[in-house]
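Practice problem 4.
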């Protein structure tokens, strides 16, 4: 049974090792001209993504398998939507196979182009007999140059209160993540393209919406106040290419949506 992705939806679910990570996502392809997918991991979680055509309730035709690159990410664009009435995606973890996973999926359609964003991380505490990979040397370099972190676009040069966050949050390393995502999006869809712009916006929402990884004031991993949350949002927005005005408008829209569901 596949979970059908609906336009404008965002869902979260677990992949459980005791069920062999069983999962399936389906996409109706009526009036679609293309499908693009970006997979990213919070840590070093690698996966294969199966793309298949759903030909009946119990049958499918495998079209392709895409594997994580050295940055633990996957991106591809498929035109298979014009040939089949329904497509499916399956996530196959290829490391940390003794750990359950949390998966968040966002989906939207714009001008007959469908975009799927997949974010995955290990569930803390489910490891057994596995060790975490050593830190990336680039992250050590970031820590040594922490003074180069830009001021938030949400604050003026005269107002430098960055709020508080616990020392385990490496601001520069996390900021670099957003720079890397901007590069990945532009290399996948083309700099300045409509799809790149839409995916960038969806990526920001996916990370900063209520209880998402960078909703820092509600984080179960880091202890941060609202001021620091706004400060880091400004840094991330800058790294993703937003002007101050665009960042403020986007932040206000997310805040309004959060208030409406509380």
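Answer key:
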């Amino acid at each position: 049974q596949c979970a059908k992705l609906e336009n404008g939806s965002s869902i979260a679910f677990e992949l459980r090792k005791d069920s062999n990570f069983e999962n399936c996502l389906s996409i109706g392809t009526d009036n679609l001209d293309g499908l693009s997918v970006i997979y990213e991991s919070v840590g070093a979680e690698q996966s294969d993504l199966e793309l298949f055509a759903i030909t009946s309730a119990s049958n499918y035709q495998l079209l392709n398998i895409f594997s994580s690159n050295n940055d633990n990410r996957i991106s591809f664009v498929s035109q298979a939507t014009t040939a089949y009435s329904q497509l499916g995606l399956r996530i196959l973890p290829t490391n940390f196979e003794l750990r359950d996973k949390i998966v968040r999926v966002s989906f939207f359609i714009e001008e007959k182009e469908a975009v799927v964003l997949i974010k995955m991380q290990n569930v803390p505490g489910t490891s057994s007999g596995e060790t975490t990979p050593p830190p990336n040397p680039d992250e050590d370099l970031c820590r040594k140059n922490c003074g180069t972190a830009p001021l938030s676009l949400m604050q003026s040069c005269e107002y430098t209160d960055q709020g508080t966050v616990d020392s385990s949050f490496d601001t520069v390393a996390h900021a670099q993540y957003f720079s890397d995502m901007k590069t990945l999006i532009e290399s996948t869809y083309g700099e300045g393209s409509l799809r790149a712009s839409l995916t960038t916006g969806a990526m920001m929402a996916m990370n900063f919406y209520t209880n998402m990884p960078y909703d820092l004031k509600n984080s179960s991993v880091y202890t941060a106040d609202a001021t620091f949350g706004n400060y880091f949002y400004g840094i991330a927005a800058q790294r993703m290419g937003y002007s101050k005005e665009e960042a403020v408008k986007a932040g206000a829209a997310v805040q309004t949506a959060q208030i409406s569901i509380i």
